[in-house]
Design a protein that fits this description.
Strands 3, 4, 5, 6, 7, 14 and 15 form a seven-stranded mixed sheet that branches. A six-stranded parallel sheet has the order 10-9-8-11-12-13, sandwiched between helices. The chain folds into two domains: 205 residues, Medium-chain alcohol dehydrogenases, catalytic domain (Quinone Oxidoreductase, Chain A, domain 1), CATH 3.90.180.10; 127 residues, NAD(P)-binding Rossmann-like Domain (Rossmann fold), CATH 3.40.50.720. It is an alpha/beta fold.
């Protein structure tokens, strides 16, 4: 089969490798669509992992083989592959901190080499732990593979929205209107709150309005805080979701969030970044700072329901489609986006929808 093998920083090699052999409790999935995630881009562009590896985890495809001990799945079923499933027994899982679980963090889906997701290949092997514990999600006939590939990123955003306790009638500031920020805008609206988005690119500001934001502004607007206060009766927003790793965006969010409000870090900052803040600001204004990393097992069914029943329109997020052999070009497009670049999807040679 063909696969994009990570051979070193910014070194992707489109190679012929063996199709993974499956064990008795494992499943082999033929990849039809895989989304390009910011975490994939970081793994490719920075020295975070030893090569060789095959990344990619926003995967939708068709079961092509099952082990003899697999009873609940059949060849030909259309499925979403979840690459993270927690153990459900450790102290983190018992406190519903599923993404802190060691089993959750240890990726086991693979197309070869050290298990690293495996979606950037024609076939991916799903281990028994994932198969048995909800890591395969059947795709309804009415849902395309493209739409289904959004279940995992939707879960990640949904977790943040739930953690921030977005409620009907609230106002939420979303910093950044890339694919994640736009999904936040959709989810905020779905849960009955008002979304305000910021970005540096005019087309993305317009796109935010198109997908459901009540207002959207240029992040460089010197009157940004005043405009947001005017939209919120002088109070400021209830919640700020940081969808870009920007120190300036954080301080804008701090400026625009009301007393007693919340600021949630969703985008991952570079490790060397440190943000100085006077703790009395948090104390006197009773602000909550929080972070949200990855997905939540508890929200998996809801994320699938939201995507499969079109409660948000994920089709509006897709801007670019590349064959898998052009993954390097897709990464470059994501790193240097055009004004119209949002979500990028990739297709192995074995066929499109």
């Amino acid at each position: 089969m063909k696969a994009q093998v990570f051979r070193g920083v910014n070194q992707l090699s489109y190679e012929d490798i063996s199709i993974p052999e499956i064990g008795a409790d494992e499943v082999l999935v033929q990849v039809r669509v895989v989304g390009l995630c910011q975490s994939d881009i970081k793994k490719i562009r920075y020295p975070l992992y030893e090569p060789p590896r095959i990344f990619g985890h926003e995967t939708a495809g068709v079961i092509s083989a099952i082990g003899e001990a697999v009873t609940d799945w059949q060849v030909g079923q259309r499925v979403v592959v979840m690459h993270h499933i927690p153990c459900m027994r450790c102290a983190y899982c018992l406190n519903e901190n599923f993404s802190m679980c060691d089993t959750y963090k240890r990726i086991t889906t693979t197309a070869g080499f050290v298990p690293s997701g495996g979606g950037f290949a024609e076939y991916v092997k799903v281990p028994g732990h994932i198969v048995r514990n909800g890591g395969l999600i059947p795709i309804p006939d009415s849902v395309t593979f493209e739409q289904a590939s959004f279940v995992e990123p939707t879960n990640c955003c949904l977790k943040a929205v739930k953690k921030a306790k977005v409620e009907p009638g609230q106002t939420v500031l979303i910093t950044g209107a890339g694919p994640i920020g736009l999904m936040f805008a959709m989810l905020v609206k779905y849960f009955g709150a008002r979304a305000i988005a910021t970005d540096l690119i005019p087309a993305r500001i317009e796109k935010a309005l198109n997908v459901g934001a009540e207002a959207a502004f240029d992040a460089r607007d010197p009157d940004l805080s005043a405009k947001i206060k005017a939209l919120t009766g002088g109070m400021g927003v209830d919640i700020c979701l940081l969808a870009v790793p920007s120190e300036k965006a954080f301080f804008q969010g701090l400026d625009c969030t009301r007393k007693g409000g919340k600021i949630l870090f969703f985008a991952e900052f570079p490790d060397e970044v440190e943000i100085p803040i006077n703790p009395n600001i948090l104390y006197r204004r009773e602000l909550d700072l929080m972070g949200s990393y990855s997905s939540s097992y508890r929200l998996q069914a809801l994320a699938a329901d939201i995507v499969f029943n079109r409660r948000i329109d994920v089709d509006k997020l897709v801007s670019d489609r590349y064959p898998l052999k052009e993954l390097t070009a897709a990464v470059e497009r994501a790193v240097q986006p055009t004004p119209e670049t949002y979500k990028i999807l990739l297709y192995p040679e074995n066929g499109k929808e």
